[in-house]
Amino acid sequence: MIELKNIEKYYANKGVKSYILRHVTTSIKQGEFVSIMGPSGAGKSTLLNILGMLEEPTYGEYHFMGEDVTAMKERQRIELYRNHIGFVFQAYHLIDEMTVAENIEAPLLYKKIPGSERKSRIADVLDRFNMVAKKDLFPNQLSGGQQQLVGIARALVAQPSIILADEPTGNLQSTQAEQIMDLFKKLNQEEGITILQVTHSEKNAQYGNRILTIEDGVIKEDISVEKQM
Amino acid sequence: MFKLNLKIALRNLFKNKVYAAINIGGLAIGLTAFVLLLLFVNHESSYDKWSPELKNVYQVREYHDFFTPDNKAYWQQRSESRIATVLKEKIPQFKYVTKASEGWGDGYSVKIDRNNPVIVKDIVDADSLFFKVFPYEFIDGDELTAINAPNTIVLKQSVAIQLFGTDKVIGRQLKLVRWRSDEGNLMTVTGVVKDPSTAESLAFNAITHTGERDTDPDQISNSNYTGIYVRAEKFLDTNVLNKSLLNVYVDYKKALLKARGTTYNEFYKEKNRKAGLKILPISEVYSTPSFSENWLAKIKPIIALSIFLLIISVINFVNLATAQSVQRAKEVGVKKVLGAYKKQLVLQFLMEAAIQTLTALFITIILVELLLPAFSNHFNVQLSFWHSDQLLSIISQLFGLFILITLLAGFYPAMVLAKYNPVKVLKGNYESGFGGIALRNGLVVLQFIIAVTFIIGIGVMYKQNHYMASKDLGFDRDKLINISTNYETGDSFVESIKRIPSVKYVATTTQVMGNTFNTSRELTFNNQKFDVNAVTVTMDALPALGVKVVTGRIFAKEYAQDTINSVVLNQSAANLLGKNLVGKTFTSGPKNDVFQVVGVIKDYNNESFEKAVLPTIYKVTHLGGSSNTNNLLVRFDNDHYQSAIKTIEAEWKKVYPDFPMIYTSVEDAFLKELKPSLRLMQIVVLFSIISVVLSLLGLFALSTFMAKRRTKEIAIRKILGASDLQIINMLNKSFMILVVSANLISWPIAFILTKKWLEGFAYRIDMPFWPFAIATLTSVIIAVFTVSLQARKAAVNNPVDALKYE
C-alpha cells in the first residue's frame, strides 16, 4: 500500500543541511498496524506528516496505492484525504464550534455523500462508540478520552483505508489510553484498516504488529511484534 | 454543507459578541452614510425624467452677460425673448417653441375672494404653447386650450388643494398681485395638472398666461429676457443642431445690432465678446447651472467623506477578521486534512462576511429611515426610501453594495485563513500561520491617517467659520431690516414709516447682503477705461448701512450737487483708479456724463466670503441710468425695534391690503450667506467623530487580540520580573509607532486639502498650526488610553494561568 524509497527531509540553514529524515526506505502493506517509535526530535512526526501528505519530502519517492505522491497536484491529494486517509491527532483537533455529530459529519460533507446516508453512517458510528447521548454536545463539554473517541469516529466515518495517528493517547490517562488502543486493535483486526501510529509508549506499541524505531532521522529497527494475546 | 457553515458562522458570532458588534455596527455606520449619499445622488440625478416625452424637450441657452453676479458672460437660462420668434421661423426641427419666465423676488401674492393674501412662489408666466412643450398630465381642464386665452392660470394639483382645499377648481378666480402697488390681475383657473413623481428643473406651482410673454418689446433698444423651451419632432443631434443654431443667432444679432446703430463687429469682435446660442436637453438642465458649480461638484467633499468612512469601516472589518482568524486556524487545519478544497474554505469565510454585511445592511436601512428626515432637512431635499419611485433601482444598488462590501471585507481574511498550513496550525504553532501583520499595521495606519485628517479638517474649518462669523463686514448689520419692495422718492408709505419714532433711516440700494444686483459700467478716467460695478442708492443708504468713510465724505442732503453727479467709491475702486481721488472727475455712459468723486468708503461685504468685493461706485443720481431691486432698508436706533416693525406692518397693510409685507433682518441674510460653509462643517464634524470612533473601536479590538496573542510572552516577562507598567508600555509602543507615523503622513495631506478649501474664500485665515498639534495630541492620547485599557488587563493577569495551558 505504501512504498517509501530513499525519503530525505532536510532544512538548509546557512549552507548547512540539517537533516530530519535520511534514507528512509520502507513499505507498509494493507492491513498492517505499525507503530513508529523513537526519542523526541527523531523525525517520527515528520515521517507521519510525509506519509499523510501534509509535508513534502525534500527528496525521494513515495507511492501511495501505486501512485506517485510527489508528482500529485493538490486536488488529487485532497481526493486521497477524502477517500483513503483518516487522521487522528494528539490534541484531538475537533472543531469547537461544531457538535459531536457535526464534527463526525464534516468529512462526509466533503465526500459529497447524500444526506440520508450521512445520517445513517453517523448514527452507526455513534452507536458503535456508545456516544449517541452525546451527539449534540460541543467538544469542550466532553472529557479528553471522549473527545479522542469523537476524533477517531470522525476519521472512521469516511471509511478510510488507512488511519494516521500522531500520539493518539498522548494527552490521555492510562485507562482512557487503553480503551483507545483496544479500539485501534479491533479496527485493525476486524475491519482490516491499516493503522499507523506515532507513540512514545512501549506498551501502546505492543498493540500493533510492527514497530519502526527512528533515531536521528534514520530507521534503526524494524521488528514485528510477537502475538501475545 | 451550507447549512453547517451557516451554523458555524452564527455560533462564532455569538461566541465573540463584542467583536461581532464592533464589526457589524461599524460597517452599519459606514454604510448608513454611504446609503444616505446614494439616495441623495439618486434624487439629484432624477430631475426631469418624469415623462418619456421629455426626451424631445430642450432648453435654449444664450451666452450673455446680462444679470450675472460678476458682470461676466455665462450660458444663461434666460435668453432674449425675440430669439423664440426667430427659432420658430428658422429651425424646422422645432415643433413648438415656448417662452416661460420665472417670477422675480419672493413670489406673487394670491388673493382669493376676500381671504387674506398669501404669497405663492414659483408662478411661471408663459405663452399659450407651454403645455404643448411640457407633457404635464391634466387631471382637470383641457390641455390643448387651457392657457389659450389671456389671464388664465393652470395650477398644480397640490397647490390647488393648498389654496382652495380641493382640486375641482376649474372656473374659480383668483387675484394675482405681483408687487405691493400692483393693481392685480384676475385670473381664471382653466386647468389642474398632476404633480410629477420626480423633481423638475423648471419647478412651478402655477403657470399663468398673462399675455406678456406673447409679444416682444416694441422698441428695438429694449430687451426682455425669458426662458425659452422647445419641443422637437424627434430625437435631435444637439451637436449638429447647435451649429445651425449659432448661425441663425449670429445672423439675428447682426440685424439687431445694426438696427440699434452699432455693428456686430463692434459689439463682439472689438470687445472680445463671444456670441452663443445652444440647446440643452431638459434632463441636463439641472446638472448644468449657469453660474454655480453643479450639484455633483458641490457634494464632492461629502462624497469623499462618505467613501472614507466606508473605507474605515471596511478596514475595521478586515483587521478584526484577520486578527481573529487565529481562533479559526484549527478549524481550517482540520477541515483541510478532512479533504476540504481551498475554494470551499474561501467560500465559507466569504459567507461569514456576507452574513455580517447583510446584518449591517439591515441596521443601515433602519438607521437610514431614522435619519432621513434630518438629512432631507439638512440638504433641503425631499428624500424617501420606501416610498421612493426608484425603490427598485435603490434595492439593486444596495444589492451591488452588499456584494462589493462582502468582497472587500471578506476576501482578504478568507484568503489568509484558507492559506493556513495544516501541519503548522495543528501543531499549535499559530505564530507562523499568523500572516499579514504588515498589511494589518498598514491598514491601521491608513485608518488613522483618515481620522487625523478629519480632525485637522474640523480645526481649520472651525477657525475659518469663526473668522467669517466675527469678521468686520465694513458695515453695521445690526438693527437693520430689509423690506422686500421697491422704493420711490416721495412714496407715501416710506414717508409714513420715517415718522415712526425708532426708525433712524429709510433707504434703498441695489447692493445689500442677501440681495445684491451687480451691473457693470465702463468709465473713463485720465483717458483710461475701467470696468466697475455700479450701485444705485438713495441719499440715506450709506449712512443706513453704517459704512466707514476713508477719505472725503458720503452723500448728504446739504450738498445739492449730490443729486446731480456725485459718486462715492469703495476702497477697491479707489485702488483701481489711483490716489487722491476726492474731487476728481471721470466720464461714463454713451453721452459721456461727468461724475465727480466726493469720497471713498471702506469695502463692505455684501455677498458670501467666497467672493471678493468688486470695485464699486455708488451714486444717488439718475444720471446714466439707475436701477431699483426690491430693497427697502430700515435702520432702527435702538434694540427694541420689534414693536416698530409691527407698526410698519400695520402701516403697510393699510396701504397695500392685497400684498403681504416680506422682510428679513440683514443679520439673518448674513447668516444665510454663512450657511453653506457651516453646513459643510457640520457634516465634516459628524463624519470625523464617527470615523475617529470607528478607528478607535478598530484599534481597541485589535489591541485586544494582540494582548491575547502575546499572553504567553507577557506571562514569561512577568515571571522574569517585569512590572505591570513596563508591560503596558511594551504593548503601547508597537501601536504608538503606527499612530505617530499616521500623523506624520496626514499632516501634509490635511495641509493640502484644507489649503485648497480655504482658497475658495476670498476672505480667509492663514493656515493655523494648532489644529495639527491638537489632532496629533488627541490621536496619541486616545490611542494610548485604548491600548492601555487592554494591556492592563493582560498585564495584571496571574502569569500562572497563562502558562498552565502551554
Automatic annotation (TrEMBL), chain A:
Q: Name one GO cellular component term.
A: membrane protein complex
Q: Which family does it belong to?
A: Belongs to the ABC transporter superfamily. Macrolide exporter (TC 3.A.1.122) family.
Q: Mind listing the GO molecular function terms for this protein?
A: ATP binding; ATP hydrolysis activity; transmembrane transporter activity
Which keywords does this chain's UniProt record carry?
Answer: ATP-binding, Nucleotide-binding, Translocase, Transport
Q: Which organism is it from?
A: Pedobacter frigiditerrae
In Swiss-Prot or TrEMBL terms, this protein is called ABC transporter ATP-binding protein
Q: Which residues form the ABC transporter domain?
A: 2-229
Classification via Pfam families: ABC_tran
From TrEMBL, chain B:
Q: Which residues cross the membrane?
A: 20-41, 302-324, 345-372, 392-417, 438-462, 680-702, 735-754, 769-789
Q: Which InterPro entries match?
A: ABC3_permease_C, MacB_PCD, Macrolide_Exporter_MacB
* Gene Ontology MF terms: transmembrane transporter activity
Q: What is this protein called?
A: ABC transporter permease
Q: Where is the ABC3 transporter permease C-terminal domain?
A: 304-422, 686-795
Q: Under the cellular component aspect of Gene Ontology, which terms does the record hold?
A: plasma membrane
Q: Where does the record place the MacB-like periplasmic core domain?
A: 21-235, 447-639
| Main localization (coarse) | membrane
Where's it found, cell-wise? Cell membrane
Organism's domain of life? Bacteria
- Membrane topology, from the record: Multi-pass membrane protein
Q: Which UniProt keywords apply?
A: Cell membrane, Membrane, Transmembrane, Transmembrane helix
| Organism encoding this protein | Pedobacter frigiditerrae
